[in-house]
Amino acid sequence: MPDFSMSVRDFYDELAPDYHRIFPDWDASMARQAKALDGLLRRHLGAGPHRILDCSCGIGTQAIGLALAEHDVLASDLSPVAATRAAAEATCRGVRMPVVAADMRQLPFASSIFDAVICADNSLPHLLSPQGVQAALLGMRRVLRDDGLLLLTVRSYDEARQSRPTSTPPQVSRTPDGEVISFQLWHWHDDGERYDLEHFQLTPAASTWDVRVRRTTYWALTSSQLAEFVAGAGFTDISWHTPPASGYYQPVLTARRAPAA
Fold first, then answer.
1. Which of 234, 215, 230, 222 is nearest to 14 (CA)?
2. What pLDDT was estimated at residue 207?
3. Of 2-6, 95-99, 123-127, 217-221, the least confident
């Protein structure tokens, strides 16, 4: 079996310089997503500020927004290029946010030090085996304090597992850097659960288009599968929050770290 962690790291290393182009206004998206996540944090943990680990921070979309909302955020990501950019973007916005490159299955942090751990933007489904998902969730539980909060955001895969879509609609973003068109092709594996993704990003270049393609693989975990993994890792009070209810663009799973026996 190929080392999927290497392919995921390559995917985000290559995407990191252009990731902001997915959004018409990246800073506005940061603020909007932070407001939704902060609402969930307040509902479950109180007003805060809270000590938060974003263990799949990418270039900082959620982490920077939460740091600007005055939470104490530490961020990590598998991609060293993305982590470096997240740190630079945080500095540009005047917030202190330590960032490290780290695999979410081997978090290099002390136990029981965070009030909340966030794993957003459909990051957990990059782990293609039960063992990988379990290792990541157990690590997230380890670094949470007793009764700490886990927040996972993922694609809504329940219907997709039935229909097996082969592409996403083109998304046109008019950014300060110019117009960008993005879309994805999905190539489903024979098991009907995993798929290879090709992410296309097109930007104008003279009389033609500059086309960039990045490839990675996902496990289309259903809501019941993911909840079962979370429960198996020792979390309780598992709840799903839909986008209309939470204001976040993806379904959000919240759970609490059960105190050690």
1. 215
2. 82
3. 2-6
Q: What is the mean pLDDT of the chain?
A: 93
Residue 261 pLDDT > 70: no
- Tell me which fold the domain 15-156+221-257 belongs to: Rossmann fold (3.40.50)
Ranges in the chain annotated CATH 3.40.50.150: 15-156+221-257
Report pLDDT digits (tens) over 227-241.
999 999 999 999 999
3-class secondary structure for 185-251?
EEEECCCCCEEEEEEEEEEEECCEEEEEEEEEEEECCCHHHHHHHHHHCCEEEEEEECHHHHCCCCC
- What is the model's pTM? 0.92
Which residue shows structure tokens 């917030």?
95
Burial class from Cβ neighbours inside 10 Å (0-12, 13-18, 19+) for residue 77 reads: buried
**145/217 Cα distance (integer angstroms):** 32
Fold category of 159-219 in CATH: N-terminal domain of TfIIb (2.20.25)
